[in-house]
Amino acid sequence: MGDWDAKVYERVSEPQFRWGQRVLERLPLRDDEAVLDAGCGAGRLTELLADRVPRGRVVALDASEGMLERARLRLSRFGDRVTFVKADLAKHVERPAVDAVFSTATFHWVLEHDALFSSIHASLKPGGALIAQCGGAGNLTRLRGRTARLRASAEYAPLFADFREPWHYATPEETRRRLERTGFVDARAWLEPAATPFEDAATFREFLVHVILRDDLGRIGDEALREKFVDALVDAAGKDTPAFELDYQRLNIEAKRG
Fold first, then answer.
1. Mean pLDDT, consecutive 10-residue segments, the chain of 258 residues?
2. Which SS3 state, helix, strand or coil, does residue 236 take?
3. Per the count of CB atoms within 10 A, which of 3, 11, 112, 245 is most buried?
């Protein structure tokens, strides 16, 4: 599917923002560090991060030009203390190296986690900290089962013959092994259940369309078929107890460059 609609994402991504605020609280900072926000999105958390380093600098990185445009508007008050980079996180090495890498709701969009952690390790100064959270093993199990069954149905199967989910939801164990293999020390990773309710069918539907189902819906050219696909998922969620709830699992990551 095409680029993110950053304005809509900024409006509907309150769950990601709340999770990110708690992750940011875990990042120890003085006030003068250089920090890479790896997957800055529309810049809501980047703004909080920049406020915490008034004598430092922040690099706001994202693969989406639409997100970066939105972030530039939000973060303009910081002047040259915030710089912007459009890049593939698994291939980018930040220079000069930074004191810390902060990331939320991003790493699961990167399929090659060995390359991801290698790039982050190379971007950090010795002793630099990695503090992150992303989707982890078991994330959205119920919804993903339903979308898989829809994709395999006779009506949709021809459109999804070579489809691959756009996420990698890693376990804490494999994440720790990857971090240590890459050269990180004091590596920790753990899962945190984060069941997320939505107030009604309309808000649930908007979130599905603009956050979770972008790759699925990009395969369905016929508008009526797209609506039918989403309708089936919303209707099923309405019968859940509680209704319209997503079974999120967050993977928390902490490590230091050795």
1. 80 93 96 98 97 98 96 97 98 98 97 98 98 98 98 97 96 98 98 97 96 95 97 98 98 97
2. helix
3. 245
Nearest alpha carbon to residue 15 among 212, 196, 250: 196
Distance CA 110, CA 164 (A): 13
The answer, yes or no, to whether the previous bond of 96 is cis (omega within 30 of 0) is: yes
DSSP state of 196: E
Q: Assess contact for 104 and 16: CB atoms under 8 A.
A: yes
Strands (E), 12-52: 34-38
Radius of gyration of the chain (CA): 19
Residues in the chain: 258
Count CA atoms within 13 Å of residue 218 on its CB side: 14
Is the N-terminal amide bond of 242 cis, ω within 30° of 0? yes
Tell me, what DSSP letter sits at residue 63? Answer: S
Q: Taken in order 10, 18, 35, 120, is the CA torsion positive or negative?
A: negative
Q: Is 211 helix (H, G, I), strand (E, B) or coil?
A: helix
pLDDT at position 10? 87
d(CA 162, CA 7): 31
Task: Give the global pTM.
Answer: 0.95
159 burial (CB, 10 Å; 0-12 / 13-18 / 19+) is middle
Spatial separation of the C-alpha atoms in residues 55 and 109, rounded to whole Å: 32
E strand map for the chain: 34-38, 57-62, 82-86, 98-104, 124-135, 184-197, 245-257
Residues 98, 101: Cα–Cα separation, whole Å: 7
Q: In what order do the strands lie in the sheet with 245-257?
A: 82-86, 57-62, 34-38, 98-104, 124-135, 245-257, 184-197
Tokens standing for residue 166: 């756009």
